[in-house]
Fold this protein.
Amino acid sequence: MREGDNRWGWTAGVLLAVAAVRLLAATVLVPAWEAKTHRAPFPDHYPALARSLVEEGTLGFQGAGAPITTTRGPGFPAWLALPLLAGRGGDRVLAWWATLPGLLGAALAAWACMRFGARPLALASPAAAALAGLHPLPVFTSSRGMADEFCGVLGLAGLVAWRCAETSARGRWLWAGVSGLALGAAMLTRATALLFLVALGAVALLSRASWRRALLVACVALLPALVWSLRASRLEGRVVFVHSMAAYNFWLGEAQDRFGLPSDPGSIREHAVPLMVREAGVGAAEAERLWYTQSPEQTGELERKLGGAAGRRILHDPLGYGARVARGLIRFWISGTTRSTTLAYAAVVLPFLSLVLVGALHSRESPRDPLLSAVLLAAALHALFYAAVCPMARYSVAVYPACALLAARGLAVLYRSGSDSPPPPP
């Protein structure tokens, strides 16, 4: 009983630390860094999308670009719209609100670890909260108004709710519905959240999980994504799943692989735009206007050209492309936009990845837990997909909340191994 009490107490302390660190990062540290490095806040322009939802009832970039856009999903803008509805639209308020889901994700990771993880060890639950909520990469990207952690928290919620549906004595179908809603919201944020659903379905088929509940999860999750995809497809005049620009990102990834990362200050676009012009016959002015300033029709036309060129590139040199994907598997975790940011990311990511690998490889604690299997498969699918398109560390943040379960398990394994080791000889 004392161990359980300690576990709750330590977890509560960690969550308080997570709240304090995220408030400090969003309102002081990251704005100071942006001012020092002359970086504009919110590089993905999500506040403009949120204001468009509130003021115009549509998803667009208002004066910053296309008044109606298909390059983003509505999930994260809808979250940022909540403080706007309350009359709180300042940059620092929105930055703090953008990073708040990370606190919720830390609490969820700790709770999931208590219920499904290495329960005999009091260290595991507070470790999960700390690893999910205090890791510098998610804290930094979320404080800059990026949507990846928001998507990842919803993905973790979907997997945990599905596992609750399989283990709870009551409300199993309700938990399945919650899982579908969470995964559906994740897909409306990032189309790649579909990979969480794929992982869930695969594990459900290979385990003793109910296929009927898994089917309900899939139906509930896919319905809003398909409805939004109809809107995006109609606007672009081609089939689009949630949002556009996969082909454009493919060529960003190709430029990264061919030319390497620029030194500070620099941009991958400096190499990518001429590459698009040469390989796809895209006009320089047309490519330079992307990503958010073009209308859906212009975006669709550009994606057709870039997509065709991507297919030709793969077919022309499949072995070379395979090597690019292999290199992208590590770039997905550590690559920044410049060499210096990549080195900084590597310093904070590699220890986390090491713990994830220890947790994934260790078979003594819950060796066949379907939740951990789904987490591992979802992370692997995300890494493979982005390695094939545009591997950047910021995208890996989408699996950090879920991977915190594996990392906490790895930390528990190392702690127990150290505790169980025999004392040194006198």
